[in-house]
Amino acid sequence: MKKTSRRDFLKLAGATGAGLLACGAGNALANEGLQVNNEELGMLYDATKCVGCKACMSACKRVNHDYGSLSYEKAKFDEDGLWDAPSDLSGSTRTLIKLFKESEQRWSYVKYSCMHCQKPSCVSVCPVSAMTKEKVSGIVDYNKNTCIGCRYCQIACPYNIPKFQWEKAVPQIVKCDLCKSTNLREKGISACAEVCPAGAIKFGKRKDLLDEAHQRLKDAPDKYVQHVYGEHEGGGTNHLYLASMPFNKLGLPEIKPEAPAEFSEKIQHTIYKGFIAPVALYSTLCFIAVKNMKKHESHDDDHKKGDK
Amino acid sequence: MGHSEEYQKLEGKIFTKSFFILLSVVLLGFYFVGVRYVKGIGAVSNMSDGYPWGIWITYDVATGTAIACGGYAVAILVYIRNRMQYHPMIRSAILTSMFGYGLAGFSVMVDLGRPWNAYNFFIPSKWQANSAMFEVALCVMAYSTVLILEFLPAILTSIEQSKWDRMNAIRNWLHPRFAPDKKTMEDKLEMVRLGALWLKPRLNKVLIFFIVLGITLPTMHQSSLGSLLLIASTKLHPLWHTGFLPLLFLLNCIFIGYSIAILESIISSYSFKRPFEIEELSGLASLIPFVTVIWLSVVIGDLAHRNQIAAALKGDFYSGWFMTEFVLVAGGSLILFVKKCRRSARWLFISASMIVLGGALYRFNVYLIGFNPGQGWKYFPSFAEIMITVGIVALEILGYKVFVALFPVLPNMDLHGAHKKKGHAKKHKGEQSKPLPQSEAAAH
């Protein structure tokens, strides 16, 4: 009788193991699901045109101040808080201009804000659907009324975009939503793109932005690194970049064309497809355990009789 | 099933010196929990936007639940592999699992920024099945409930047998004006007892289905704890980022579970001055190397497959942590291959500690040490952050100490000897071809 149960156990262990291993093997398969939608809204930031005036930062905070519960950040030397001086994206700042300077001749500005991915990791990992991607516009939006504050979106985002309000007793996640509820609704354009005096931020549909970007690369091949950052990175993003310096120097990470969310979802889906594996596991285990239990009880009775 | 006599309460006082020391640690931890709710997470912790998960998630949730897998591992052994001789160990294993998971849930509530929104887990329109976190959350909540159900028989037994000394003492201590009438109180307590008497046989009948659920759920969420980091492909060091994370986490929690069951038994035998249960422990110990060997081969095979062996041997920061984790688990398992060591409490303690440490370090490596969000980010837990974790661990030990005194949890020493002989008798029948171990042969 012992042998039977052991065989059962081994079978079961084998089946579970094989299932998990199969999913591991599944990783090697090619990217199947992701469809790029070029009709979605996005922005093209051209670092060679940016003059570093930070009008976009100021406009973003002015427009989204109340809606995004943003606040002004003091610099150390500025006791009275005369200037808003954030040093990085934070729980109060959705967009930021930074200067990267290699030498007097080689430098570049760079603007940070949400990349609005085609296949966003933050949406994939949010356990309660507080992060969502709008079907038509493609805007990756955040709803603080469902968010539980687990910060998994921060772990998952390869660009480190979602920021948490660490200093607040009632915190929330802060990230760019393309002015969805403010400037975009009122004027049809994001605040940063609207106020840029140098034309460094172009707002529009992804396909138009891509055409424009490739045109610029063709027109001035010496000026640019021949790459549109965001065209293929992590499955593609709606926020695109052009620059004269290598993108990783500007703090934009090198990311493979496969969306990280595709990789993790594929494994999760293989294990939990139709919830069959857990149910099968449960019923097999039940079968074995009940059988063992009955055997044990009859065994116990034998012993009791024997003792008497 | 009349398993109740298998277990006994621990005789002795509850309010000892160590009780008050632990209590003060718990209170200090809870003071900082209070600060966290008033002033925000940033006020007590060193977590940042680069390291949004600190030791609360890494230790209390990811590692703490693995350490709480004793109940899971022993349940597989007893109910699925049909090794009833380990049944006496199961109740204390389930008790520690119950505290481990309950307090992991508690520290999640401390860690969550907006815990009042957690009800969204129960609203189907908000469900997000793509998220490993969703799976972990639901499974852990369900498993905690199952653990309470699994432990309920112990509570019901002690209600049945209770003479209500403590309740009567409290009644006598209260001012007569506040104290309830003696007759009414006795009637009500009798009703509770009858309720327990009614519930117990019914619970026992369906308990096996909950026990099996208690094996299925950890299988699911322990592997999903590994899946959580699958998406951090750019941030987690390639030594640890692999599609096999779920499988590695599952195996990891099983060998940690057996090792922690051994440690628990040795420590409680030592501190409660009871004899060591060497027979059971060496049996458990002989299982561990099988699991660790599979785990170690998956780790090596996967590294070789992804051409990361060189990175593992490079000798830098990451490879150092990887080697430490690997050597601890491998070394602990090597000790357990020696039969003499399996029969010595000291060596069992050393090897089980090594395996638990190595297994826990693996989880730290995945969640924290191997996690690099980019340039400029650093994380080391703050004092208050550590104290919250230490306070939670202290509460766990405190609860264990109180519960083993209040309820029949530890194996009954008188019956235990008889039970062991039964086990041996079974072995004789089942495995006649195998030569008897020396000590057993000597015993007969």
TrEMBL record, chain A:
Chain sites annotated for binding [4Fe-4S] cluster 3:
C114, C117, C122, C157
Tell me how the cofactor is bound.
Binds 4 [4Fe-4S] clusters per subunit.
* Protein residues bound to [4Fe-4S] cluster 4: C126, C147, C150, C153
Residues the record lists as binding [4Fe-4S] cluster 1: C50, C53, C56, C196
Give the 4Fe-4S ferredoxin-type domain ranges.
Answer: 41-70, 105-136, 138-167
PROSITE patterns from the UniProt entry: 4FE4S_FER_1, 4FE4S_FER_2, PROKAR_LIPOPROTEIN, TAT
Where is it mainly found?
other
Q: Which domain of life is it from?
A: Bacteria
Which key words tag this protein in UniProt?
4Fe-4S, Iron, Iron-sulfur, Metal-binding, Repeat, Signal
What one GO molecular function would you report for this record?
4 iron, 4 sulfur cluster binding
| Subcellular location as annotated | Cell envelope
Could you say which cofactors this protein requires?
[4Fe-4S] cluster
Sorted alphabetically, the Gene Ontology BP terms of this entry are: cellular respiration; formate oxidation
Which amino acids does the record list as binding [4Fe-4S] cluster 2?
C60, C176, C179, C192
Signal sequence, renumbered to the chain: 1-30
Which segments cross the bilayer?
A: none
Q: Which InterPro entries match?
A: 4Fe4S_Fe-S-bd (IPR017896), 4Fe4S_Fe_S_CS (IPR017900), FDH_Electron_Transfer_Unit (IPR051555), Formate_DH_Fe-S_su (IPR014603), TAT_signal (IPR006311), TAT_signal_bac_arc (IPR019546)
Q: Which GO terms describe its cellular component?
A: cell envelope
User: Could you describe the subunit structure of this protein?
Assistant: Heterodimer of a large and a small subunit.
Q: Which PANTHER family match?
A: FORMATE DEHYDROGENASE, NITRATE-INDUCIBLE, IRON-SULFUR SUBUNIT (PTHR43545), HYDROGENASE-2 OPERON PROTEIN HYBA (PTHR43545:SF1)
What's the protein here called?
A: Hydrogenase 2 operon protein HybA
